[in-house]
């Protein structure tokens, strides 16, 4: 049974996050998807095709950890399974955000390898456990595909083997990151978008 008052609070947190991310230019039009955990077996996720700058609680629905709707005829985001495997992976994850920014899209396309290494940036310390700019943040890059089930398996297998991973990129697509709650996840996405914007500016300066 879904705790309806808690669902309402989580749905509002998703809507508030959507407006912020849209205003930054990181979630244009109907792109992107967001979610927040409800309990050990369910999470709230954005409904497919909704404009992220105009979200209302009616644009958020409850699904189980297989991504199947709970008491709703709406269709969840096509990428709901990518959220689901994150909640399956770690029970301390309370929210997941996926953005489609210019920086995330372009940098992931230009990166030849299967990972982006971020280092020597002060803002790396926005992530828990990172105490100095002298370390590295490794963001894996997965090739874009319409086979979401296969992509979900690939991302989960990678994260199981690399539990320190703070986020990942889908090539030419965008960023996925997570946190203990929506506030921490917003901090992570804001830091990542800044770092990727720096990488993009560096690439432009070197060209």
TrEMBL record:
<keyword id="KW-0862">Zinc</keyword>
<feature type="domain" description="Class II aldolase/adducin N-terminal">
    <location>
        <begin position="12"/>
        <end position="200"/>
    </location>
</feature>
<keyword id="KW-0028">Amino-acid biosynthesis</keyword>
<dbReference type="Pfam" id="PF00596">
    <property type="entry name" value="Aldolase_II"/>
</dbReference>
<dbReference type="InterPro" id="IPR036409">
    <property type="entry name" value="Aldolase_II/adducin_N_sf"/>
</dbReference>
<comment type="function">
    <text>Catalyzes the dehydration of methylthioribulose-1-phosphate (MTRu-1-P) into 2,3-diketo-5-methylthiopentyl-1-phosphate (DK-MTP-1-P).</text>
</comment>
<comment type="similarity">
    <text>Belongs to the aldolase class II family. MtnB subfamily.</text>
</comment>
<dbReference type="GO" id="GO:0005996">
    <property type="term" value="P:monosaccharide metabolic process"/>
</dbReference>
<feature type="binding site">
    <location>
        <position position="98"/>
    </location>
    <ligand>
        <name>Zn(2+)</name>
    </ligand>
</feature>
<protein>
    <recommendedName>
        <fullName>Methylthioribulose-1-phosphate dehydratase</fullName>
        <ecNumber>4.2.1.109</ecNumber>
    </recommendedName>
</protein>
<comment type="pathway">
    <text>Amino-acid biosynthesis; L-methionine biosynthesis via salvage pathway; L-methionine from S-methyl-5-thio-alpha-D-ribose 1-phosphate: step 2/6.</text>
</comment>
<dbReference type="InterPro" id="IPR017714">
    <property type="entry name" value="MethylthioRu-1-P_deHdtase_MtnB"/>
</dbReference>
<keyword id="KW-0486">Methionine biosynthesis</keyword>
<feature type="binding site">
    <location>
        <position position="100"/>
    </location>
    <ligand>
        <name>Zn(2+)</name>
    </ligand>
</feature>
<dbReference type="GO" id="GO:0019509">
    <property type="term" value="P:L-methionine salvage from methylthioadenosine"/>
</dbReference>
<keyword id="KW-0456">Lyase</keyword>
<dbReference type="GO" id="GO:0005737">
    <property type="term" value="C:cytoplasm"/>
</dbReference>
<dbReference type="InterPro" id="IPR001303">
    <property type="entry name" value="Aldolase_II/adducin_N"/>
</dbReference>
<keyword id="KW-0479">Metal-binding</keyword>
<dbReference type="GO" id="GO:0046570">
    <property type="term" value="F:methylthioribulose 1-phosphate dehydratase activity"/>
</dbReference>
<dbReference type="GO" id="GO:0008270">
    <property type="term" value="F:zinc ion binding"/>
</dbReference>
């Amino acid at each position: 049974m879904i705790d309806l008052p808690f669902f309402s609070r989580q749905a509002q947190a998703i809507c508030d996050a959507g407006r912020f991310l849209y205003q930054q230019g990181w979630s244009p039009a109907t792109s992107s998807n967001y979610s927040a955990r409800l309990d050990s077996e369910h999470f709230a996720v954005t409904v497919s095709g909704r404009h992220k700058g105009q979200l209302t609680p009616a644009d958020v629905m409850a699904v189980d950890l297989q991504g199947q709707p709970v008491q709703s005829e709406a269709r969840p985001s096509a990428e709901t399974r990518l959220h689901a495997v994150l909640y399956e992976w770690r029970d301390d994850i309370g929210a997941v955000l996926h953005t489609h920014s210019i920086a995330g899209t372009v940098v992931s396309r230009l990166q030849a390898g299967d990972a982006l290494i971020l280092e020597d940036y002060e803002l790396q310390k926005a992530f828990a456990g990172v105490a100095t700019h002298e370390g590295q943040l490794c963001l894996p890059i997965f090739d874009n595909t319409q086979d979401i089930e296969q992509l979900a398996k690939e991302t989960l297998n990678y994260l199981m083997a690399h539990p320190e991973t703070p986020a990942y990129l889908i090539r030419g697509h965008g960023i996925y990151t997570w946190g203990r709650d929506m506030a921490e996840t917003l901090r992570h996405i804001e830091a990542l978008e800044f770092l990727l914007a720096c990488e993009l500016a560096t690439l432009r300066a070197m060209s």
